[in-house]
Amino acid sequence: MLSRVTTAFRNSLERNMSAVGLHSGQVFILFELWKKDGQRQVDLAARLAVTTPTINKMLLGLIDAGLVDRMKLENDNRATRIFLTEAGASLKEPVETQWHELEENTVAGLTEAERLIIFELLTKMKNLYAGESDED
Amino acid sequence: MLSRVTTAFRNSLERNMSAVGLHSGQVFILFELWKKDGQRQVDLAARLAVTTPTINKMLLGLIDAGLVDRMKLENDNRATRIFLTEAGASLKEPVETQWHELEENTVAGLTEAERLIIFELLTKMKNLYAGESDED
DNA sequence: GATAACTTGTTAGCCGGCTAATATACGATA
DNA sequence: TATCGTATATTAGCCGGCTAACAAGTTATC
After folding, report:
1. Burial B87-96 (b: 16+ CB within 10 A, else e)
2. Residue B63 needs a FRET pair 20 to 30 A away by CA distance; which of A6, A75, B20, B129 works?
3. How high is the pLDDT of residue B132?
4. pTM of the model
5. B64 near A CB under 8 A
6. What are the distances in angstroms from CA A58 to CA A24, A50, A86?
7. How far, in Å, is the CA of A125 from the C1' of nucleotide D20?
8. Residue B103 touches partner A, C-beta closer than 8 Å
9. Nearest to A120 by CA among B125, B52, B121
10. How far apart are CA A128 and CA B9, in angstroms?
11. Helix or strand or coil: residue A135?
12. Dist CA A92 CA A20 (whole Å)
């Protein structure tokens, strides 16, 4: 059930974001970079709660699309910083527009109270499953 | 948020099911076959709400693991029926045991009322997103 | 009966998730 | 200084989702 909602949501997001030429996962990285440009990969991964190979793969897509650049950290040759290109920065507004559109659909379908409840319950469930083998 | 819960759940399921040598998605197909053996691929896909290429890929895994067999329908040469092998049938009990274990964790963490509420809200959300481009 | 439309399954290829293994680089410590 | 441990990124490869394109069988319709 849970996974069906997620799949439905991702499909919806995918359709919605294809209007600006993005894939569903890429927008979340861009959101992070719009908030704070030049973050390290490992920090982006932590923010999105994914593993480093996953963030790496997603970034390859963004680099390929010319929305983002990689640069070595000056004082640490292990890490790389991720920077928005002009193309990446200029996507901010259209993407946010699309995002609000999606959001409005959700807002229209659920009351404020329902959103609060579901958020709380989902948090509870997340900890339930995540807590089984790993402390969050 | 939603996707994090799903990911957490799938990871949990994956760990849990590796005890009987299965992957997270395979159990759902097996559940269907234990209920009713010999279903067509397209019906299994509909039951699990996935596309035909997806069910096809998942079945290849099950065939490879020797848990399931394919057979042509006698009266329709397009369709194939999926049958449990002995190995597949004999997995029923251990898998159900594992499943109940997982279920108990969820039961322990959420009250009956909470489960009802979240189910209802998730259904609502699913229809929200699914309904955007396609009637269910 | 021939052709068109629909159904079912398969192949190819992409995205987003993971683990395991590897290469480097940095840091701490003997 | 040499070494050992830790942090970061990458590669390879798997699972579960999708779309697009295709092959092949069935059904309907002319």
Report:
1. ebbebeeebe
2. A6
3. 46
4. 0.88
5. no
6. 10, 11, 19
7. 37
8. no
9. B121
10. 9
11. coil
12. 10
Six-digit token string for B30: 């097996």
Burial of A108 by CB count in 10 Å (0-12 exposed, 13-18 middle, 19+ buried)? exposed
Query: Which portions of chain A are predicted below pLDDT 70?
Result: 131-136
Do residues B82 and B69 touch, judged by C-beta distance below 8 A? Answer: yes
Q: Are A49 and A129 in contact (CB under 8 A)?
A: no
Spatial CB neighbours of A48, under 8 Å, sequence gap ≥ 6: A28, A29, A32, A55
- Other C-beta atoms lying within 10 Å of the C-beta of residue A29: 25
Q: Is B131 helix (H, G, I), strand (E, B) or coil?
A: coil
Q: How far apart are CA A120 and CA A101, in angstroms?
A: 24
Cβ–Cβ under 8 Å, residues A16 and A101: yes
Nearest to A56 by CA among A84, A25, A31: A25
Retrieve residue A14's tokens.
Answer: 């995918």
pLDDT (tens digit per residue) in A91-122: 999 999 999 988 888 878 888 898 899 999 99
Tokens of A36: 């704070």
Q: What is d(CA B53, CA B114) in angstroms, rounded to the nearest whole number? A: 35
Torsion of CA B107, B110, B116, B119, to 10 degrees: -90
Hey, are the CB atoms on B126 and A4 less than 8 Å from each other? yes
Place of tokens 């490992």: A42
Determine contact, residues B5/A125, Cβ cutoff 8 Å.
Answer: yes
Nearest residue to A23 via CA among A35, A33, A11, A34: A11
